[in-house]
Amino acid sequence: MSQTHGFLNRVAAILEAVSSATKGATLTSVLEASGLPKSTAHRTMNALVDIGFLETKMGGRRYYLGEKLLRLLHFGCGNDLIGKLVEKPLQEMADSICETTILSRLRSSSIEIAVARTPKDCRAGFIQLPLGPTPLHACSTAKSILAFQPDEVVERFLTGGFAQFTRATRVSRAAILEELESVRAQGYAICDQEIDLGIYSIALPVQVPRLGVAYSIAIAGPAERMRQRPTAEYVQLLKRSETKIKAILGETWMDGLSTAANTEAHAGMQAPH
User: Fold this and answer.
1) What is the pTM of this model?
2) Measuring CA to CA, which of 42, 49, 151, 191 is 20 to 30 A from 131?
3) CATH number for the domain formed by residue range(s) 3-65
4) CA–CA dist 249, 211 (Å, integer)
5) What is the chain's pLDDT, residue by residue, as a tens digit (273 residues)?
6) Where are the domains of the chain?
């Protein structure tokens, strides 16, 4: 085995040990889980702290996955795996309200609709939404993410012109920034026929611990029907789902991701050729 492979194996063993310790890993617990010599483990862990892949608390006695590594893992994870993790709360919300539910996510240069779920048993018609990048200045899920980003991220995302999809679309920079300020104040964003006539959506940011707002969830449906319910009712339903999704994408994220990935890999092995 080359020195490079040996080092990467040590890093992988340490990260796996730390990620499985929900209350933080100690040097002793890492040694027990990884089987590495004490001096090797300690030296490698310090290097991972230096580059932001690990963080320490309690005077350096407990180790946690670092924010830099968490951002890489979240942003690099495929939508299919994310969809498996949030399947249950999104589907429950869709079934309870009889409308389409959405999870969107922040990417390096865009915000995209990553997952959409439709009600299973509903006599009324519901909308089908395309997955992928969504207009930053008009989509409720994009606005509910962008409103909570640092100023430099907002500036970078809002460069260039803005398409006028309908008469309701805000296209001036001043109007867009004013709306983002309103979203921060009220805690949710609305898209009332700003992209497609007859389509209404309301979105709530998902605040992931130690990561910030990298996701949002929304309810979308025909504007005429959606307006028949008070906004507060949608907000309360979104908040209940946000609590569940925040837990999935936060503290239990690594365990859930590993389970989803293993399930996907097993299904692939069992698929007929």
Assistant:
1) 0.77
2) 151
3) 1.10.10.10
4) 10
5) 455 567 888 888 888 888 777 788 889 998 988 889 999 989 998 899 998 888 888 777 888 888 778 777 777 777 888 888 889 999 999 999 999 999 999 988 889 999 999 998 777 777 888 889 999 999 999 999 999 999 998 988 888 789 999 999 999 999 999 999 999 999 999 999 999 999 999 999 998 877 789 899 999 999 999 999 999 999 999 999 999 998 888 755 555 555 544 444 444 444 444
6) 3-65, 73-254
